[in-house]
Amino acid sequence: MTRLLILCTHNSARSQMAEALAREAARQAGLKLDVHSAGTEATQVKPEAQTVMAELGLSLDGHTSKTLWDVPDAQNFDYVVTVCDSAAEACPVYPGQTVRRHYPFVDPSGGSLDRWRAVRDQLQGQFQAFVQALQAGQEAPPSYTQSPEVVVA
Fold it and tell me: Which residues are the active-site residues?
């Protein structure tokens, strides 16, 4: 089974949404993917993240903000994906077999629900592409460049 860790600063928004989206994409594809998320600091899952994920029928109930050291077998991942620049800078070194990817997404915190939806939809597209690549036996996409036209204030 492939193991994926998604890292962000507070594990409260982007990484939480990405975890649920990656898990769902893998489920739909029939791909065995063990997905976890964590932050460089633990806070709490933002209610806006819960709201916009519920719109897709995905629940963040039971999700908690956690640090890397709260994740089972924290140094044993096939892929580590950072979804914000500060997490990319603070991400620890992983053994040689771990593939790191950096997919920076705008922080929706403090923005409208439309901004949250735009970020959620960008995350969904990226992690669907991630799962599709793995399912096809390919490397995960090397990077992500956000489309400025979908970022909502």
Answer: 8, 84, 91
Does position 144 have pLDDT exceeding 70, yes or no? no
**Tokens coding 12:** 């409260």
Answer whether 84's CB lies under 8 Å from 14's CB. Answer: yes
Q: What is the pLDDT of residues 7-49, one digit of tens each?
A: 998 999 999 999 999 999 999 999 999 999 999 899 999 999 9
Q: Which residues contact 13 (CB under 8 A, 6 or more apart)?
A: 45, 46, 48, 49, 107, 108, 109, 116, 119
Residue range 2-150 forms a domain whose CATH class is: alpha beta
Alpha helices in the chain (DSSP H): 14-29, 47-54, 85-90, 113-135
Taking the domains of the chain in order of start, what are their residue ranges? Answer: 2-150
Rounded to whole angstroms, the Cα distance separating 30 from 151 reads 31
Contact 15, 8 (CB under 8 A): yes
The helix-helix angle for 113-135 and 14-29 (nearest 10°) equals 40
